Amino acid sequence: MILSLVIGIFTVRYLGPGNYGVISYIESFVMFFTAVSTLGLNAIIIKEFVSNEKQQGKLLGTALILRIVVGCISSILLILIIFLTGEGDKELIIVACIQSLIIPFQAFELINFWFQSKMNSKKAVIAQVYSYIILIVYKTFILITGKSILWFAFSTTLDIGLAGLMLFIAYVKNEGPKLEFSLFTAKKLLSQSYHFIFSSMLVVIYAQTDKIMIKYFMDVYSVGIYSAALKITIMWSFIPYAIIDSARPLIMSAKEVNTESYEKKLIQLYAVIIWLSILYGIFVCFFAKNIILILYGNEYIGATSALQILVWYTAASFIGSIKNIWLICENKIKFEKYFALMGVICNIMLNLILIPYLGIVGAAIASLGTQFVTNIFAPLLFPETRGHTKLVLEGLFLKRILWN
Question: How many whole angstroms separate alpha carbon 346 and alpha carbon 341?
Fold first, then answer.
């Protein structure tokens, strides 16, 4: 992981804000279409694996086929959009073609969820280590030999493709259930996940609108500066996401047994994630300029102020990930699309107002405000979901952990 971060830093320095901005801009579209192609299945599949152990092969096989098919269609649409809006920029179009392959490859992450449901994430991690080693060798090679931006664009595609292949091999070696496709199962899965399809699209819209609008109001160079700041804020995100992924099946299982234990586990998870985020945020705010100079050099010094704001945006996004666990357990997933819609409206309005005057700092403020609205304020508007914000506050103030 540390080696990957180091190579990532050298990649950003090598590409410079302009080329890095091109890749980041295309990645915004990839993220949107990836959200569409997940079909909301990521949010419900672990619960289905846990609740229907004898149907796991049919569940996984059906979900894989659905995501691969929709992923291929999404890739074609992405390329078409960039072709029509790219103003004849051949490099931009080629980068889009290369990175569009990420979308169908992402389907194989479903196998990782199967391992998680079995409390056997170790198998998935071992499989991904092999792909990680190959990727590190590839990235080191293109850095040393000074390859073009196209080689770097392919590295992300290679990463996702190899990870998917290794997960599939691990599944076969561990004698996972025979994969089957069932139209009935497909309808059942989609009937539960459709709330998340729309909400996932909305979430990615407000998560990626900033980069697209920065390019529209400013330029690709500014996208690169902004993306560099964002990259620093998520450098440590593998830690909170690993904690959340490990806690998810435990929380879902506890919900089936004991309400008090279930809520306490949620509060403990919120407390750990929130306080880790606060500590990281304080550190980054104090040393933002030095961090940028050390990691990326003078070319990216303009990212300092944006970094000091964005570090809190990513902290709030972790709360959103836990919120989705709560919504699933409480059978209140229909509210997610309302929260996400509020987020999109808030984000677009704030970006339209702030970017022309404040540049990338305005985009950072818009992103932070959107996360607060979506994950803290919006649930308070509905009586059925106010319990989520209550649990967040209990986690923040360590209630039911250090005191009652």
Answer: 9
Q: Running DSSP on this structure, what letter comes out for residue 234? A: T
20: tokens are 């890095």
What is the spatial distance between Cα 304 and Cα 284, in angstroms, rounded to a whole number?
10
The closest alpha carbon to 265, from 281, 243, 280, belongs to 243
Give the list of residues 6+ apart from residue 30 with CB closer than 8 angstroms, or none: 78, 99, 100, 102, 103
Q: How far is CA 202 from CA 136, 216, 225, 343, 370, in A?
A: 33, 20, 25, 8, 12
**Confidence class of residue 403 from pLDDT cuts 50, 70 and 90?**
low
| pLDDT (tens digit per residue) in 294-334 | 999 999 999 999 999 999 988 888 998 899 889 988 888 88
Handedness of CA 269, 275, 280, 284 (dihedral sign): positive
Give the number of other CB atoms < 10 A from CB of residue 402. Answer: 8
Task: Read off the amino acid at residue 112.
Answer: N
- The pLDDT tens digits of the residues spanning 220-269 come to 899 999 999 999 998 888 899 989 988 888 888 888 888 788 888 899 99
Which residues face 403 on adjacent strands?
399
| H/E segment holding residue 20 | helix 2-37
**Reduced to 3 states, what is the DSSP secondary structure of residue 403?**
strand
- pLDDT for res 295: 92
DSSP 334: G
Helix pair angle (259-295, 238-257), 10° resolution: 170
Instruction: Give long-range contacts, CB 8 A cutoff, 24+ apart: 274-278.
Output: 274/315, 274/318, 274/319, 274/392, 274/395, 274/396, 276/239, 276/240, 277/240, 277/314, 277/315, 277/318, 278/315
CA–CA separation, 397 and 332 (whole Å): 25
- The Cα–Cα gap between 136 and 154 comes to 13
381 CB neighbour count, 10 Å cutoff: 12
